[in-house]
Amino acid sequence: MTSPAAVPAIRATGLRKQFRGSDQSTVVAVDGIDLVVQPGEIVAFLGPNGAGKTTTVDMMLGLTRPDAGRLEVYGTSPGEAVRRGLVSAVMQTGGLLNDFTVEETARAIAALHGRTDRVEVVLERARLTDLARRRVEACSGGEQQRLKFALALLPDPDLVILDEPTTGMDVGARQEFWQAMRADAAHGRTIVFATHYLAEADEFAERTVLMNRGRIVHDAATTDVRAAYGGRTVTLRPPPAVERADGIDPAWLAQVRRVLEPLGVTDVEVSAPSLEAAFLALTSGAGHPDRPGHRDHLVGATR
Amino acid sequence: MTASALRAARPAADPRPVPRPAMLRYARLDLRRQLRDRIGMFFIVGLPTFMYLVFGLGSQDPVGSGNVAMYVMISMACYGAVTATTGVAGSAATEQVMGWGRQLGLTPMRPLAFVAVKAALAMVVAALPVALIFAIGAATGARGAWSDWLTSAAVVWAGSALFAVYGLAVCLVFRGPNAPGIASGMIVVMAFLGNVFTPMSGFMLDLGRLTPLYGYAALARFPLTDGWLPSGVRDPLWLPVANVLAWTVIFALLALWGVRRSRART
């Protein structure tokens, strides 16, 4: 949908950055990255800790200067793009001031952007309106992270970069964060986020860039990345009658195998629900077995 | 997708102007936050006021061109003002180190503007104890020539800027959330050594002459005392001046080293 003449949101060629370790050895954090992100794209940077994601993000924001290579954000330098409010970020280690309230924090940063008109809008967008008068130190980790997200929205940027935005959040907070994020993405913002949760990339990004040891090892549509990880899994929940304390009734299981064999199913695996699913089922309110959220889990694709 | 297409077209078609940071609004919010800090404000305003009331109130014995109440009043105002600048500058450094600086780095504000805001803030907060203690002194019997009131107040207030550099240096060297507390705590020790709280004599006085608060407080009291100390000896003017100059250089070098060191990590 983007016009061919549009300037890319990010254009990086041969990006390189090394640090000097405490023992004077050099560590290459980013080792020759080429990347183009078009306006409107939602891209995940997926990789283990130390893959170079944060260093790459810091360079895109003008917080770190690359040692080699070219990097343009909307056709200008990263620092200039930040000053113009074109790009903004939720950073992994960006701090907040404990003795400001949520609203004061937003007002202070809004003043520096010259956009005090946007305070109410961004608090609403990040679902913080009810917490506006709470002091930052009294907010949970998830709430503080949503506040950083609100701050990132203040300049009404075209591109938002999120660096491990859900680190340290519990499952519920993580879902709430991505819900706020998803609602905002519907407005057409370009979003780049770094994560080491495959599920986050899978649920949210159209395109996934896999990084390891400072290099891009794979860059494709998220569906392709998922396929590379071995397709989808179908989960079935057995009737309560066959669930015994020591596991599933073996006779019933054998019957299932026989029924499925003609369909080309080669393997049936029995597993306990993931901690994450159990946690959500236990904490998301009433335990009605026929709630829609619950039924998703009975028969569905685990991704 | 129309929304995204619209947005996508915007940067190329309509480069937006660089927004102007509203620094005054930011400074006002930051000042309010500082004034709300009860413990901080107790040491800046409450403690020196209390000490003036205990040691200075009603002491009519003559000192120089005024009385003891005036002498104590100036000393305690020094302590309050210095605690203020140390605290504001120290917490500014700590905010930067602890990550708020990265948040500010994503706004159009230039680093120099941040320094200017914090410097202005430190001087505003330092003015509070000076104004309050001088007002209480005037109302409760501190006496001296009117020109001594003006010059002392000016020296107390302006000279406290030196300790903004001190607060900055300490907090850049001892990084971490406790650094401003360490800096303010050391001020109390230096106030005793610097002849600010109680008059000293003998060896302690000789030692104290070399400490950072001695020169500043002696200069602030100079219009009143003309250099005479309670112990009956007299400091020539060059002594407190040399003390202040020497410590200015030391604190500045220390702060510079701290800045270099914190930059080297990133």
Within the largest sheet of chain B, what's the order of strands? 1-2
Q: What number is the mean pLDDT of chain B?
A: 87
Largest interface: A-B, 49 and 43 residues
Shape of chain A: globular
Characterization of the model:
The complex is a heterodimer of chains A (303) and B (266). By secondary structure, chain A is α/β, with parallel strands linked by helices. In chain A, 34% of the residues lie in helices and 24% in strands. Chain A contains 11 helices and 13 strands. In chain A, helix 5 runs parallel beside helix 6. The longest helix of chain A is centred in the middle third of the chain and has 15 residues. Chain A is globular. Chain A starts with 9 loop residues before the first strand and ends with a strand. Chain B has 266 residues and is mainly alpha-helical. Chain B is 75% helix and 2% strand. Chain B has a two-stranded antiparallel ribbon. In chain B, helix 2 crosses helix 6 and helix 8 packs parallel to helix 12. At the A-B interface, helix 3 and helix 5 of A face helix 1, helix 2 and helix 5 of B.
Question: Which characteristics define this entry?
Answer:
heterodimer, A: 303 residues, alpha/beta, Rossmann fold, 2 domains, six-stranded mixed beta sheet, three-stranded antiparallel beta sheet, 11 helices, 34% helix, B: 266 residues, mainly alpha, 12 helices, 2% strand, disordered N terminus
Quick summary:
Chain A is an alpha/beta fold and 303 residues long. Chain A is 34% helix and 24% strand. In chain A, strand 6, helix 6 (171-185) and strand 7 (190-195) form a beta-alpha-beta unit.
Ordered list of secondary-structure elements with their pairings:
The complex is a heterodimer of chains A (303) and B (266).
Chain A: E1 10-20, E2 26-37, E3 42-46, H1 53-60, E4 68-73, H2 78-83, E5 87-90, H3 102-113, H4 119-125, H5 141-153, E6 159-163, H6 171-185, E7 190-195, H7 198-204, E8 207-212, E9 215-221, H8 222-228, E10 233-235, E11 243-244, E12 247-248, H9 250-260, H10 275-283, H11 292-298, E13 300-302
Parallel strand pairs in A: 3-7, 3-8, 5-6, 6-7
Antiparallel strand pairs in A: 1-2, 1-4, 8-9, 10-13, 11-12
Chain B: H1 2-13, H2 23-36, H3 38-55, E1 62-63, E2 66-67, H4 68-97, H5 100-105, H6 111-139, H7 146-159, H8 161-173, H9 179-193, H10 202-208, H11 212-225, H12 238-264
Antiparallel strand pairs in B: 1-2
